Amino acid sequence: MKKADKDMENQSNQTTDNQAILSTDRLSKHFGQVKALEEVSCRIEGASIFGLIGSNGAGKSTFLRLAAGVYKPTAGHMLYEGRVVYENTRAKEDIQFVSDQPYFHFETLKKMARLYSSLYLKWDPSLYEELLQIFPLDENGRLDRMSRGMQRQAAVILAIAANPRLLLMDEAFDGLDPVMRQNLKRVLARQVADQQMTVLIASQNLRELEDFCDHVGLLHQGGLLFVEELDKLRLSIVKVQAAFAEPMTEDMLREAGLQVLQWRTRGSLVEILARNSEREVRRVLEEKRPLLLDVLPLSLEEVFIYELSQKAYAVSELLA
Amino acid sequence: MVYPEINLQSGVPLYLQLKRSFHRMAALGLIKPHEQLPSVRQLATELGINPNTVQKAYRELEQENLIYAVSGKGNFLAGRGDSKQVEKEEIRRNFRAAVHVAWVAGIPNETLHSLLDACIAEEGEGNQE
């Protein structure tokens, strides 16, 4: 096939695979006997903020390194806008990767910034200056003498100022104080809104990502357990506390249409967890004329635990 | 420009919090009909939240006719949307709970009506002071 034809074909692939900036198809990466990733298929839409959750060794960093083109897949594909990432110059130009263990070619941030400005066409000097205000690092300080946390901040500054279309971050919010974290979120939010930048953040800590991501994927032992829209996940399960004048059983509520996940009684109070919308739960329970009916707040972590316990995984293993 | 309030700890999805906040601000007159709302970018950057979350809230508010979008210009508060819908729901729920307590206690309907009248009268006196 001639090059021009190949480009045409790639072009049409791109349109059929619309909106997915990154997609994988039965992606596997093995290191000798170790299966770091096994047959992972997913799509990440452009201008979204995607959270990759999993414990140590779940395969998060491997996934990010494959997305960054650092690793070559053992099997399957890692595609950036429909094209293989590995050895793809266009992807290299568009994708920035903040590793959990950054490595720098030069000794100071200032020299690194100069290197980046020559390497990346979209390097934004004013954004760089702005980021230096958020992360108060000494531009002329020796990077190799800085703490791991500060090195990571330096890597975040460089990556964002390169104005990437896809930003990959490994544990990026870890070790930031609340003010820095909020400021980083504000910069990221603006870049997503203005530049249609896509962000893929990996973390062990669900709480760190839950108020910022629109989608989350859960990795466990190299497999992707699920990908879901966060708001959907949050609204899919409702927890209520109720008391009834007449004796009430789990079965009676099931018959009335509640998908009861958990039923706990404490004296005359019942705590119910149901896979229904809040409206449905209220409708069913109000018909039973409750003496008391309170909808209780449910953390995303609790939602994850119930989703996963259905899949029979030990949750303590999954969430650090 | 008025910004909505959000609480990251509440466990309520942020887009719902944004929606409720805009409904409330509209009902209280903090935003006037045809006034421009903050852009997705402004709101996301100001609050440090995902622009897609803001987008989702605006999309649903538009479907509920609280706001309207002018392409290339932004989002504006509708002239006479039913901005009190959220409050009505909440009031109905509170009434419902009160009626239920009365029902359990065996209080007759006439007493309930006079209790409501008394509440309205009290509220009126309170506001005149």
Give me some keywords for this one.
heterodimer; A: 320 residues; 2 domains; 6-stranded mixed beta sheet; 4-stranded antiparallel beta sheet; 13 helices; 38% helix; disordered N terminus; B: Arc Repressor Mutant, subunit A; two-stranded antiparallel sheet
Instruction: Please give the alpha-carbon distance between the first and last residues of chain A.
Output: 50 Å
The largest beta-sheet of chain A arranges its strands as 6-7-8-3-9-10
**CATH H level of the largest domain in chain A: which superfamily?**
P-loop containing nucleotide triphosphate hydrolases
Number of domains of chain A: 2
Into which percentage range does the β-strand content of chain A fall? 25-35%
Oligomer: heterodimer
Number of domains of chain B: 2
Shape of chain A: elongated
The count of helical stretches of chain B stands at 5
Kindly provide the radius of gyration of chain A, computed on alpha-carbon positions and rounded to a whole number of angstroms: 23 Å
| Count of distinct strands of chain B | 2
Helix content of chain A: 25-40%
Q: Supply the CATH class of the largest domain in chain B.
A: Mainly Alpha
N- and C-termini, Cα separation of chain B: 31 Å
Q: Under the CATH scheme, which architecture of the largest domain in chain B would be assigned?
A: Orthogonal Bundle
Radius of gyration of chain B using CA atoms only? 19 Å
Give the chain pair forming the largest contact, with residue counts: A-B, 30 and 25 residues
Any idea of the CATH topology of the largest domain in chain A? Rossmann fold
CATH superfamily of the largest domain in chain B: Winged helix-like DNA-binding domain superfamily/Winged helix DNA-binding domain
